[in-house]
Task: inverse folding
């Protein structure tokens, strides 16, 4: 498609911004690290643990610059972008450490600047500025909409909603859709009703028992300050992917709003945030997907391909040719690995690697280095061998958050519980072929669904020498991949 006028203006704006960033980064080396992932993937916990570890000298043996003592100091600096909220680090940390509760999750973009004083391998003292940008993955999955017409998006969304396991969830919306006349006169009430049913369907897909990942438009589930505005009030229609709407029709109204969504939501996000990132970590609650079965896993794979496509969109602007390549490292991280025994951590990584490889084959090359890791930013469990009959089972111990779980069991928030977290298959292919992830031995599973158990953050032992480090799993490996090379 030939670039339109708005695309040219967009490119000009992007170029101006990149020049500014480039100039600043020349005198003051900066890495802008994007942290994203779908709702509840673990972004807030990850960023809090990462900042705490860097500023308070966490136990990071694999993060070479820190482990070898080359980092003299890492400290917070004033947040650089005036129009972006600051990541509420201090509050989140207090919630985690003092209250042993999980902090409130990401619902909007936020940012924090960290300044790292370090010594190069050759002995010279240097400073690296690390800007951490936290944003909902739902926004990222919107980027492919920039290259799609309303008709294409409608056709794709409808096809997805008609396939298993989504179809039953879409029944109410489909019934309403069957009564809508795309060619009929534009109608605000019908649009409102359809948008509401479509949003209900998207929300049902997000239910953790289904754990569907591919759900644009992202703001329908995370509307923020746009709630109720026309740009968020539209829905797919059953129209031909190459058709054109007649003036004044319901169809034309939907097209207008879809384009407004791109103008007021997607393009500003791309220009002001995404196009400025250098590195990206994508957090994935892979265990939730495993628990939901093979379909959720294939959905996850499609979402990963979608995400990789977004990075390609990012690179195809003229910017990348003019200035330094932007996102040049992407890390996919399966979070909450502390829900598994360490014997399964490599297997978790293998499943994610398999999903990413499939996605790389489907998406075109992004030009960025890609890696995967299974991590727990904050390790909430310990490991133990639990005697079951004659067997000793590799188990995890943790304090469940207070309340009642799906099995009707009541937890007081103080007592530790030992669970056998289940094994991931040695061959990742098995999960993709539909073999269920067995969370527990069946007798336990009958009693309570421990697979969905949430543990409280750990109790930290104070030994009197400053603030204790937060336990984690492989957070240091993630850091080494993301910024290790910039601290050489
Ligand atoms: P966000 O929506 O991506 O910001 O997700 P959060 O960081 O708020 O995490 C969502 C929930 O996942 C938290 O409330 C915790 O229950 C859980 N969680 C996140 N990270 C970890 C982790 O490292 N270990 C454990 N056990 N749970 C985690």
Result:
């Amino acid at each position: 498609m030939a670039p339109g006028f708005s695309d040219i203006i967009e490119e000009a704006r992007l170029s101006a911004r990149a020049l500014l960033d480039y100039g600043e980064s020349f005198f003051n080396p900066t890495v802008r690290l994007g942290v994203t992932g779908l709702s509840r993937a673990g972004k807030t916990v990850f960023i809090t643990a990462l900042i705490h570890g860097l500023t308070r000298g966490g136990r990071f043996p694999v993060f070479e610059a820190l482990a070898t003592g080359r980092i003299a100091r890492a400290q917070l600096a004033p947040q650089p972008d005036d129009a972006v909220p600051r990541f509420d680090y201090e509050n989140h940390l207090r919630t985690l450490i003092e209250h042993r509760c999980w902090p409130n999750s990401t619902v909007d973009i936020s940012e924090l600047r960290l300044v790292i004083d370090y010594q190069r391998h050759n002995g010279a003292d240097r400073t690296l500025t690390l800007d951490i940008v936290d944003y909902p993955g739902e926004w990222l999955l919107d980027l492919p909409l920039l290259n799609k017409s309303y008709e294409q998006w409608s056709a794709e969304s409808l096809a997805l909603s008609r396939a298993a396991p989504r179809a039953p969830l879409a029944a109410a919306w489909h019934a309403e859709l069957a009564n809508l006349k795309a060619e009929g006169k534009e109608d605000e009430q019908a649009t409102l009703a359809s948008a509401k049913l479509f949003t209900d369907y998207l929300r049902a897909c997000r239910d953790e028992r289904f754990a569907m990942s591919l759900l644009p438009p992202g703001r329908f589930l995370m509307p923020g300050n746009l709630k109720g505005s026309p740009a968020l009030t539209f829905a797919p229609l059953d129209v031909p992917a190459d058709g054109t709407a007649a003036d004044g029709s319901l169809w034309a109204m939907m097209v207008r709003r879809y384009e407004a969504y791109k103008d007021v939501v997607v393009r500003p996000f791309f220009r002001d945030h995404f196009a400025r990132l250098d590195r990206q970590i994508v957090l994935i609650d892979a265990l939730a997907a495993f628990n939901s079965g093979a379909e959720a896993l294939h959905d996850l794979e499609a979402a990963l391909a979608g995400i990789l496509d977004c990075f390609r969109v990012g690179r195809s602007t003229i910017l990348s040719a003019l200035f330094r390549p932007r996102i040049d490292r992407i890390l996919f991280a399966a979070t909450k690995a502390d829900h598994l025994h360490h014997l399964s951590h490599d297997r978790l990584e293998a499943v994610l690697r398999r999903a990413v490889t499939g996605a790389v084959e489907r998406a075109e090359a992004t030009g960025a280095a890609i890696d995967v890791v299974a991590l727990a930013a904050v390790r909430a469990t310990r490991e133990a061998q639990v005697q079951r009959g004659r067997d000793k089972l590799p188990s995890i111990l943790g304090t469940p958050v207070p309340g009642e779980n799906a099995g009707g069991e009541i937890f007081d928030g103080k007592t530790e519980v030992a669970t056998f977290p289940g094994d991931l298959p040695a061959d990742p292919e098995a999960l993709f072929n539909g073999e269920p992830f067995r969370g527990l031995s069946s007798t336990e599973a009958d009693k309570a669904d421990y697979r969905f158990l949430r543990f409280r953050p750990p109790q930290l032992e104070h030994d009197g020498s400053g603030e204790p480090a937060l336990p984690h799993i492989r957070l240091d490996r993630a850091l080494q991949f993301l910024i290790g090379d910039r601290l050489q």
